[in-house]
Structure formats: C-alpha cells, structure tokens
Amino acid sequence: xxxxxxxxxxxxxxxxxxxxxxVLQEAENPSVPLIQRVRxxxxxxxxxxxxxxxxxxxxxxxxxxxxxxxx
Length: 71
Hints:
Blueprint: H1 11-28, H2 34-70
C-alpha cells in the first residue's frame, strides 16, 4: 500500500476532518455562550456521522478498486 498515490485518498477527506476539528474547537471555547457550544457539538456529531457514512465508504471503495487493479 505504500506505493499508492495519496492523492487518491486524502485532500477532500483531510479537508473535511480539518473543518470538523475547527467546529469542535469552537465547542470547547469557554468564551462562546453555552447554547452555541451545544449547537457546535451537534454540528460536529452530524458531520462526523456523515464523514463515516460517506467519505470512509468512498475511501474503502477506492482501495478495493486499486487493489483489483494491482492484482
């Protein structure tokens, strides 16, 4: 797997995770009102669920596709 082109897997997924990390940072910020922090946590949770349902499934499909090409 070390020979795989990382462009197949990372840019969009890493960007998505980076955005979600920023949302979580806002949820952890004590200067943000509590109700807004709870909303940020809801957004974070929803985004993470979608990431695993959509993005991880996509990466797994790509990996299977590349694996098939290599065999």
